[in-house]
Specification:
alpha+beta; endopeptidase fold (from Nostoc punctiforme); 3-stranded antiparallel beta sheet; 314 residues; 10 helices
Length: 314
């Protein structure tokens, strides 16, 4: 019995406890043997008999589509000819790129409605990227293409050219919208026409041409050059403190402090403010030296007397 347990323990130690290791080792040995003994076929696959490996039709289509997409991304959506590459290598701040672009420069690049870039055409992203940077050639294979989709232009300018987001658009700001669509849209803001509408300048609203039109901009984001600073809000001119034109008043029957304040100050206030105002008027004939307020709180309760002359003393 002890011998049986000893054999079982030895089995667990040598095999069961290292099962994963033995599986990996076996797979590695099998792959090595296949590579050493196999023959490379015409399509690049490795088989034992040297014939092409059989690939299912849907797998072949997937590979073809993937290769086509990779080719498009790497060749068609990027400049590939030497002339274009050279032009991109010479990008400089003097051409209006980056944070140092001004909104005046952006607006000055605006093309007339109907312009189609000499027949090359304008996609919306190509046009606003041109307005923002001064560059308009992004694909030699598709000269109407821009650098990114319309909905991504604002983020593209922030990431690559030092632009910044702004809460409220101003003339010359570049915007992106349509984030729930495949390509979205982009335009230059001109002026507001309503709560969620604006006059914009863009391209491809009329196919591949520039146009100016009213558009709903609800949900759009807007960017401006990094150095842009809005004009400071004008400092409101304080209302001049009314200066009384009254210094002496001959009191007549029916006069009140409210009427006198209205006549002298141009407004009327009550409560403590009226009390303070009454403390500045003094009798000069009937109760010399007594203020109107003191008359109010006296035993008589009278502050103004017909025939009296009251004097303003600050």
């Amino acid at each position: 019995m002890k011998a049986k347990n000893k054999i079982k323990s030895l089995f667990n130690t040598l095999f069961a406890d290292h099962l994963a290791f033995y599986i990996v080792l076996g797979v590695a040995a099998l792959c090595t043997a296949f590579l050493l003994c196999g023959t490379k076929a015409e399509n690049g696959s490795i088989t034992l008999d040297g014939n092409n490996a059989k690939i299912e039709e849907y797998t072949e289509k997937f590979i073809e589509d993937a290769n086509a997409a990779l080719y498009r991304i790497m060749n068609e959506d990027a400049p590939t000819d030497e002339e274009t590459i050279k032009e991109f290598e010479n990008i400089g701040e003097e051409e209006g790129l980056g944070a140092y672009t001004t909104l005046d420069q952006v607006i000055a690049r605006r093309k007339p409605d109907g312009d189609n870039d000499g027949g090359n055409g304008w996609q919306c992203s190509k046009y606003t990227a041109y307005l923002a940077t001064g560059k308009k050639d992004y694909s030699s294979a598709h000269p109407d293409y821009g650098p990114v989709n319309g909905k991504d232009v604002a983020a593209y300018l922030v990431k690559n050219f030092g632009w910044k987001y702004i809460d409220k658009p101003v003339a010359g700001a570049i915007g992106s919208g349509g984030f729930n669509t495949q390509y979205g849209h982009t335009a230059m803001y001109l002026y507001s026409t309503g709560t969620n509408t604006a006059m914009v300048n863009d391209a491809n609203y009329v196919p591949l041409t520039v146009s100016t039109h009213n558009m709903n901009i609800s949900g759009w984001v807007w960017v401006v050059p990094g150095d842009y600073n809005p004009d400071p809000e004008p400092t409101p001119t304080p209302e001049p403190t009314p200066v009384s034109s009254c210094s002496l008043i001959n009191v007549v029957k029916g006069d009140t402090m409210g009427a006198i304040m209205k006549r002298c100050e141009g407004y009327v206030v009550y409560g403590e403010a009226m009390n303070d105002y009454a403390k500045t008027w003094y009798s000069t004939i009937v109760k010399p030296g007594q203020s109107v307020y003191e008359g109010w709180v006296s035993g008589t309760g009278v502050g103004l007397y017909a025939g009296d002359t009251i004097e303003r003393r600050e």
